[in-house]
Amino acid sequence: MNSPRQLALALLLTTLLAGCSSFSQSTMYAKATQASVESYTDLGMKYLQAGDTVSAKSSLKQALDINPEHALALNGLALVFQAEAENDLAENYFRDAVKNDPNAAMIRNNFGAFLYAQKRYEEACTELSRATEDPFYAQRAQAFENLGRCYRLIGRDDAAVFVLERALTLSPDRPLAMIELADLHLERGNADAAARWFAAFRELVDRGLVDHFAKSLWVGVRLARIQGNSSRSATYVLLLKNLYPESEQYKKYEESSR
Q1: Which structural domain, as residue segments, surrounds residue 220?
Q2: What is the average pLDDT across 14-25?
Q3: CB atoms near residue 160 (< 10 Å)
Q4: Does residue 51 lie in a domain region?
Q5: What per-residue confidence (pLDDT) applies to 17?
Q6: CA quadruple 165, 169, 175, 178: dihedral positive or negative?
Q7: Is the dihedral angle over the CA atoms 172, 173, 176, 181 positive or is it negative?
């Protein structure tokens, strides 16, 4: 015959086992739910990358049906609506994504790029600055580069120099940052510094890693003029005219030649 003490111990053990079973089941359910959300989100992003925004929306919506606060799915829908030029919807989803994960550098960078494209530069700089704060963000160099371009557009040239140089410290072969710095130094009358950054860019061109673009050619024209190298200037002008006749930089060249 079992004693009261033995019965109490047996009851306690049964309760503990039941609790462990309940805890285990709930943990497994939570993990399975999270896995489903992540799978739908990943699938949606793959559809988006393939240009299938309809399927992307369907998959991302399924993720949000399970977890309406999943920041990566909200970010994904923001990118989908941005691709479809549904800018109000895109902004709403970006804001929801930021609200649910305010420290996500990737989401901040995407939102900043969206605002930049909308020419809302002050707001864009704020978001891009937040994106640069995470030292583990894989695209941090790009975020610094984007921020530098943004700072230039709101007249913060000193800050632009700092963050563009930070971008190149983290990722030395960034042609856009090099040309932005060269262009900025030319505007400030510092031809020597501009020439150094342009030389670094030309090395990438010579190695076949990058091609000239409109701004790089316009920087080359101006530097060649300052250096008295008329043949090099003529080469850059010809490339600019033939490759980018409708560009802002070619218009600037025509104005400078009148």
Answers
A1: 173-258
A2: 54
A3: 22
A4: no
A5: 54
A6: positive
A7: positive
